[in-house]
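Posted in: Protein Modeling Q&A

I'm a second-year student putting together a small comparison for a lab meeting, and my supervisor asked me to include a predicted structure for Protoporphyrinogen oxidase. I've never done this before, so apologies if this is the wrong subforum. The sequence is pasted below exactly as I got it from our records. If anyone can share the structure token output, I'd also love a short note on what stands out.
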Amino acid sequence: MAVVKRVLLIGVGAAIGWYGHSKLSKGRDEAALRAEEALRTSLSPENIGRSIGEGAASILVESTKGFLTTVREQIPALNRNQPAPPVVENLDEVQPLRVEVTEVTSERGA
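Accepted answer (user: helix_wrangler)
Welcome! Here is the predicted structure, written out as tokens:
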């Protein structure tokens, strides 16, 4: 009776081991196929080109935002946080600019 019990336990253990192995290897095979597909699509020329284009576009957008921020800080009329300059309604009240004009001569050797 003890021998039969051991044979049955070994048989049941082997059956459970085989069943678990078949399920695990099936999942492992599916994971390997998904990984291979992901690698294949990530290395395709279309995806590489798209990634490079998206990267270049984001760099352009960020540099443009930085440039416009700098321009707005340096030119108060473009700054949205500061009030707009006053509008003159009566042009008789406007004083002309006083400037000094100097002549500039070019001294180039011929």
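A couple of things worth pointing out for your meeting: The chain has two domains: 1-43, 45-79. Residues 45-79 form one domain.
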